[in-house]
Every structure is written in structure tokens, then in C-alpha cells.
Design brief:
Length: 171
């Protein structure tokens, strides 16, 4: 293995480590304790209005949204269910998909975080590739490179029957 290739590995390992750490922090972080009103608002923002297009229960003033918001408030005040269990309970009672925002943990979080991570890694990879390609423009052909080109020209000329002399101008 070349010395230059060995020097590149720590950078890639660092990039991989940072990416994994960011994914773990994003999917496993805890919001901490919140007040009842904060929980009600948070859950209401994550549940879609069953009638309105693109609005959450928090934003909508529709009767169906008001009923769902009241049910969310009652379930939060009972204090027996988590946010995810409250949303699951509301979803179970509805015939339509009401989840407006994906959950912040588990597979849903990864489904949203992985494309961002992949885009970041691709962007960094392209930057590295462009930098390498820019360095290659400064490369000067060696005598071996010139010999290969001359051999290819000679083989091509012999095969086609042309007698091309690089030093002679055609008139």
C-alpha cells in the first residue's frame, strides 16, 4: 500500500465517525420534561387535520381538528400515555393517515436523517474528487507517456496505410 493511501484513511475514518455520531445524537436525544401545554401543542402540531389539506390539528379551526385537539388534551392530562402512544391512539380511531411529522426516534428518524447524511458525504466526496482532479491538471507527461502515444500513432498509421509525419506541415 502506498504511503499516500495510508494518509487518507484517518480522514475517512474521522468523517465516518462524525456521521455516525450525528445520526446517533439525532435519533436518541431526549427532549426532557415538558409542561402539559407544551406536550399538547407538540402533539397537535404532529397530527394532521383529517379535513384540511396540509394543516395540523394545532393550526386548523375545523370541528374535526378541534375534537382531536380536545382528545389530545384529555389524554395528556390523564398522564398515563406517552406522546407516541397518544398519537397511536388517535391514529387507531381514524380511517385516514394523521401523522404529519415522523417520529423522532427509531426507523422514522433514520428515514429522514440518512438522506441528509448521504448528501453530506456525497458533497464532501465530490469536493475531494474535484480537488484531486485539479491537481492532476498540473501533471506533465513523462517520456514513457510520450513513447506510448507515439507507439499508438505508429500502429494506427500502419493499420490505415497513412504516412503521417508529425513534423511536416500539410499543404
Amino acid at each position: 500500500m502506498k504511503l499516500a493511501a495510508v494518509k487518507r484513511w484517518p480522514g475517512w475514518l474521522l468523517l465516518l465517525g462524525v456521521t455516525v455520531a450525528l445520526l446517533l445524537v439525532g435519533t436518541l436525544r431526549d427532549q426532557g420534561p415538558r409542561s402539559e401545554n407544551d406536550r399538547i401543542d407538540s402533539i397537535s402540531r404532529r397530527v394532521a387535520c383529517p379535513v384540511c389539506s396540509g394543516e395540523s390539528v394545532f393550526e386548523s379551526r375545523n370541528a374535526a381538528s378541534t375534537n382531536i385537539a380536545n382528545k389530545i388534551a384529555d389524554l395528556v392530562r390523564e398522564g398515563q400515555l406517552s406522546d407516541a402512544e397518544i398519537i397511536a391512539s388517535i391514529q387507531k380511531d381514524s380511517a385516514v393517515q394523521l401523522l404529519l411529522v415522523p417520529r423522532r426516534t427509531g426507523f422514522d428518524a433514520l428515514a429522514w436523517a440518512l438522506p441528509v447524511a448521504a448528501g453530506t458525504v456525497a458533497f464532501v466526496g465530490l469536493g475531494i474528487a474535484f480537488r484531486r482532479w485539479a491537481r492532476r491538471e498540473d501533471d506533465v507527461p513523462t517520456d514513457d507517456d510520450r513513447a506510448i502515444v507515439e507507439a499508438a500513432r505508429a500502429a494506427g498509421s500502419a493499420a490505415s496505410g497513412d504516412t503521417f509525419d508529425a513534423g511536416r506541415d500539410e499543404q
